[in-house]
Each structure stands twice: as C-alpha cells, then as structure tokens.
Design goal:
Layout (H helix, E strand, L loop, with lengths): L4 H14 L10 E10 L4 E8 L5 E9 L11 E5 L3 E7 L7 E10 L4 E3 L3 E4 L7 E8 L6 E9 L7 E7 L14 E4 L1 E2 L4 E5 L7 E10 L2 E4 L3 E4 L7 E2 L3 E5 L4 E4 L2 E3 L5 E9 L11 E5 L4 E3 L8 E10 L3 E4 L3 E4 L9 E4 L5 E3 L24 H4 L9 E3 L4 E4 L5 H11 L23 E3 L2 E3 L14 H10 L7 H8 L21 H4 L32 E7 L17 E5 L16 E5 L10 E2 L3 E2 L6
Parallel strand pairs: 34-37
Antiparallel strand pairs: 1-2, 2-5, 3-4, 3-6, 6-7, 6-8, 9-10, 10-14, 11-12, 11-15, 13-14, 15-16, 15-17, 18-21, 19-20, 20-24, 22-23, 22-25, 25-26, 25-27, 28-31, 29-30, 31-38, 32-33, 34-35, 35-36
Length: about 600
C-alpha cells in the first residue's frame, strides 16, 4: 500500500511552497463520507473536499484499528488534489474487523486538514463450495477424477483440481505429507483430471478443491478402488524418426496378462498430460505398432502413450512419454525468465529530478539520452509493466542456424502469413549466399550473429521454429538479468551484465561488422545470456512509439518502425549500449547499418515435467 510517503512529500514541498506565490491561502473543508463497499479484505473509502485547492498537495483517507490515530502514524491511501467527492480503495484488511477512518487533505506547507472520524467493518469471507463427483474410467493403475464448483464464494477461483492419497490417516489438503494434488481441466459440467501410477487394487481417498487468493475450498471426501487385475504391459516408446517436419514412433505389447486384446494403438495430445482414447487423438493400429504424426511441425509437443482394448479389463494404457519435434533451441541454451511483476521498463532514474532515487536503486543507467532511452521528444519516465514468463535464447541467432532454417524452409521470401512474399535477406548486407542449390556461409562466420536479415525474415525464422521475436519489455527484462533489488550479491548493472562495457560486449568504434567475434565470447549477464549489449543490434517485435505511464504494445505506426535494442557494434558511444537504450528501424526498406542488425529467438516456456 502507498503509506506515509505523502507526509515526507509534504514536508519536502514546504520550503518550495514558501517561495511561491499562491492563488488561494485558505484551507479546504474536508468531509468523511461513509464507506461505499467493504469485503473481507478490501474497502472503498470516500471523502469530499471544497476550497483550498491551490495550496492542496493531495487528499485521501487514513484508517486504523485504533480510534486514536493520525496521518503520520496510520495507513493512508491518497488521490490527486481537487474539489468534490473522491474515492480510494485499500487492500489487505483483516476479515470481520472494525476500522476507524477519516478523510484528509495535505497542504503544500505541511498542514493536514481532517474530516470527521467514522468507522466501518470488514465482512467474513466465503471460500468456494465444491463437490467431488464419482470417479470414472477406473482401471488397474489409473482413474479419472471429477468435480464441480457450486458457489465461487467471495473471491475468484484461480485453479481447480483434486487431492488424493492411499494413506488412511493423512490430512487431505494440498501440501500435506503423503498427499498428491493434480490440476483439473474445465468442461461444461465441471472439471476433471486423469491420475496414473496408482496401486493395483488400491483404495484412494479424494477431495476436489477450488483455489482462491485467500485459500482453497474443499469438497467432502470420497473414496474409490482401482481394479485388482494386472493390466497389459507395453514396451517403452521408441522414436524412429524426428526431423523438423516428421515424427514417428513404435512400441509393442510385451505381456498381455492373459487378456484377449481386441485392438491396440497410440493416443496423444499436445495439452493433456494423461491422454486417453476419449479426450485425445488416437489411432488403432494393425499388426505393426508404429505411428507417424501427420501434423508434426518444429517444436510441437506431444504427450503419447500406447493403449490396448481387452475383453476382460477394458482399456489398458502404457506410461506417458513426452515428445517434442526437433526445433531451434539455441544449441540447448534457452533461458526461462519469470519476471518479478510489476517491473519498470525504460530508464530507471528521474530525469526531471536527478537527485531523487531511481525506481531501482542499483539501476546504474548512467548517462541518459532522450532519443535513445524512451522516445524522441517524450518525457523519459519509466513505464510499469506486467509480463508473463517466457524463454529467450542465450545467444543471438547465428549464420549457421539461419542457413539451417533457409535450407529447410526452402525459400528466400516469406511463404505465408501477413508478410507473404517479402524478402528474407538483404543480399548486400549478409554473408549468407545461395550456392550449389543451398544457402551457405564461410566457416569463419558460422557462429557469428546473422545480420542483413529483414524483419520479415527474423519473424519467419522465429515462427517456423515455434517461437517469436521478443517484445521490447521481454528483451529489457532479460538484458537486466531479471534483477530488481538492492541485493549486492546480484547487482543491477548499467549494461547487460556489467558496468564496464568491455567485460560483456563487442562495441568499440571502428568495428567493421558484428561478426568480428563469434557469439558468447565475452562474459554473460546475471541470467547467463550473452551479447545483449553490443555485437549485433537486436530486433524486437514491438512497434516504435513513446512510452505511456503503463507499458503497452504500440499499434503499427505509419512508418512501420520497430524497436531495436542492444546497440550496434560500430557505434562507439557507450550510452547506446545501456539496458534502456532503444532505436527505431523501418521494416519497409534497407538502411546502411543493416549489416549490424540481427535478432534473438524467444518462445513460451517449455514445460519440462
């Protein structure tokens, strides 16, 4: 919550205001109004002010569990100065608790004017009401659990699932010893989850749950027992072929356990981790227990298992195998980034008041240039952002990998999508050439960052391999090492990984091309990512525009300019390599520095379980 800073601000402005001619020296009339809405943990507090606005710094409501309190010793929430009614929201209140409150107005000379004291009470909160329905598809080692939510309660349901155990004495809640939990998949009638690796003939206790920010609501307990019949046994799934566009596998039945098998095959899904013949793709096979996937594309994930139908035991399943079609993974160097939201994007100091602390005290962004850091002719303030987890390549895309892409893709122009027909390479600015029926590059440049690639080509590369160009926010979070703290053990640097550009970057003036050094030759940043300052300047997927208070992706401008990050190697000005530095690049044509521009691959995080 925003508490107490207001008092400090008011005191700091007192000296300033004494030197300024005021239009109105009067004090406002402040009225405390009844609470508009109160729940178990939040409340909308209200007040009203009239007069004295010229001298008013801000207004708001302070509150306390005690009936004796003031602005300086209690939580306060504020809003801008003005006349008339206002409302502010507070959070993190205690359920079923009485609070006292009074509206206030802070004047520029430090004077605080209060309204009449009033009280309000928070409510008790109601957790979701959940029912565990009868399990279905019960076999020897697995079963499908079912449930539904009757009432959500006071807070939105974030996840739904089940807890289960064979331990008769265990407390049946999430996180308890001996208890397993599984997330459910929603349907029109409720939610369900298939669980496996159960004991043959075992008895299990189950509860359904619905999770909220204030805890989980649990159903009553139910029980079920697995079949006391040994299921069919299968050979481990083997991969016969895995290329960018094909995936084929095989298995076999190793022990039918005396059952009469009527059919067998594979079932698979890209989302369901326990695929079945009922809710996933499946194919019954003949005498040959092999399967080729028709929709294989680079990076596609499959959860696969063999199955067999028998007259005695119904459907039998083998273990689940997780398979991914071959794709670009930066030679195993993909880094998962989980941003510490909310974050700030852009220069983290205060350009208007350079003596004030930066948003993060170890930002060390150093020299600041408006046209690089935030936007030409714009106010260089940082922009708050909320960014979902993502994965980003440890190295810039190299000539080796771009040749690999072109030779599989088989075209020098984009083949489909929004940019169909656009050129992938600028021949005058790249070392890649078409020779002997394929795209090649001299061996000395194989592991150098690819340059002379159009935005269309970079976008096509990323989409082909199941990813995307990183957004400007993703790029900067990765460049800063995802560090936003005062922890001296993991400091935040001016450049990506150091305050000394020589430690981490190819940047010196006079460098002819970025490929004078291969990728990863200098030190990495805090996440183990290389060359985010220097070497090739990097494209992002974000359209160029000035920042607003809250970061958001800009619409495509008329000039069709994207944001470049990281600094170009031939630029000898250190400020152009800062974490916050940015540049604009028109995607519709070539420019003289295209041989310094490359890109980095990003994608959604790969689930490793």
């Amino acid at each position: 919550m925003r508490y107490r800073l207001l008092y400090m601000m008011a005191a700091a402005l007192a000296v300033f205001s004494s030197c300024t001619e005021e239009e109105d020296t009067g004090l406002p009339t402040v009225v405390t109004l009844p609470v508009q809405t109160a729940t178990s943990s939040t409340a909308v507090l209200r007040g009203s002010t009239s007069g004295g606005t010229a001298n008013m710094l801000c207004r708001g409501v302070c509150f306390s569990s005690s009936d004796v309190f003031s602005f300086s010793d209690s939580p306060c929430v504020s809003t801008d100065a003005g006349e008339g009614e206002f409302a502010v929201r507070t959070y993190e209140l205690i359920p079923m608790h009485e609070y006292y409150m009074k509206a206030f107005a802070v004047m520029k000379d430090g004077t605080i004017v209060y309204g009449e004291q009033m009280s309000f009470s928070t409510t008790d909160f109601q957790l979701p009401t959940v029912v565990a329905d009868a399990p279905s598809d019960i076999y020897a080692t697995e079963a499908t659990l079912n449930g539904h939510v009757v009432e959500e309660g006071d807070y939105p349901v974030t996840t739904k699932g089940f807890v289960y155990t064979s331990d008769a004495s265990a407390k049946l809640e999430i996180g308890e010893t001996g208890v397993q939990s599984v997330l459910g998949t929603s349907s029109e009638t409720g939610f369900s989850a298939t669980i496996g690796e159960l004991a043959i003939g075992g008895t299990y206790r189950v509860k359904a749950y619905a999770m909220t920010e204030n805890g989980a609501g649990y159903s009553d307990e139910i029980t079920f027992s697995t079949l006391d019949i040994h299921p069919v046994e299968f050979a481990e799934i083997q991969v016969l072929e895995n290329t960018y566009s094909s995936l084929s596998i095989k298995s076999a039945i190793t022990n039918d356990q005396g059952n009469s098998i009527t059919s067998f095959g594979f079932c698979w899904s890209s989302s369901n981790k326990m695929p079945t013949v009922k809710n996933s793709s499946f194919k019954a096979l003949g005498s040959d227990f092999t399967l080729s996937f028709d929709d294989a594309v680079p990076g596609k994930l499959y959860y696969v298992r063999a199955y067999a139908e028998t007259s005695e035991t119904g459907t039998n399943y083998g273990p689940v195998k997780r398979l991914r079609v071959v794709t670009y993974d930066c030679d195993g160097g993909m880094v998962k980034v989980v941003p510490q939201n909310p974050v700030f994007i852009g220069w983290l100091g205060d350009y208007e008041q350079p003596s004030m602390p930066a948003k993060y005290s170890q930002a060390h962004d150093g020299d600041f240039q408006i046209n690089q850091s935030v936007g030409r002719n714009s106010t260089p303030t940082p922009s708050q952002a909320t960014v979902a987890p993502f994965s980003i390549a440890k190295y810039e895309v190299t000539n080796k990998w771009f040749c690999e892409f072109l030779n599989v893709y088989g075209s020098s122009t984009v083949k489909d999508g929004t940019w169909q027909g656009e050129a992938i390479l600028f021949d005058a600015y790249t070392d890649i050439r078409y020779e002997g029926g394929k795209w090649v590059v001299d061996s000395v440049y194989l592991n150098c960052p690819v340059v002379g690639v159009s935005f269309y080509g970079a976008d096509a590369f990323c989409r082909f391999f199941g990813g995307y160009l990183p957004s400007e926010a993703q790029w900067e979070i990765a460049a800063r090492g995802n560090v936003y703290s005062n922890d001296s053990k993991v400091p935040m640097y001016r450049f990506s990984g150091s305050d000394d550009l020589n430690d981490i970057a190819v940047w010196a003036n006079g460098v002819n091309r970025p490929h004078v050094e291969t990728v990863g030759q200098h030190n990495p940043n805090q996440l183990g990512i290389y060359d985010m300052s220097g070497n090739a300047q990097e494209m992002t997927s974000s359209w160029w525009g000035n920042y607003s208070a809250t970061y958001k992706e800009n619409a495509m401008p008329a000039a069709k300019q994207i944001v470049l990050r990281g600094g170009r190697a031939q630029r000898g000005v250190q400020s152009s390599f800062q974490n916050c530095a940015r540049d604009a690049y028109a995607i519709t044509g070539t420019v003289s520095y295209s041989n310094y521009i490359g890109f980095r691959f990003a994608c959604d995080p790969v689930d490793e379980d």
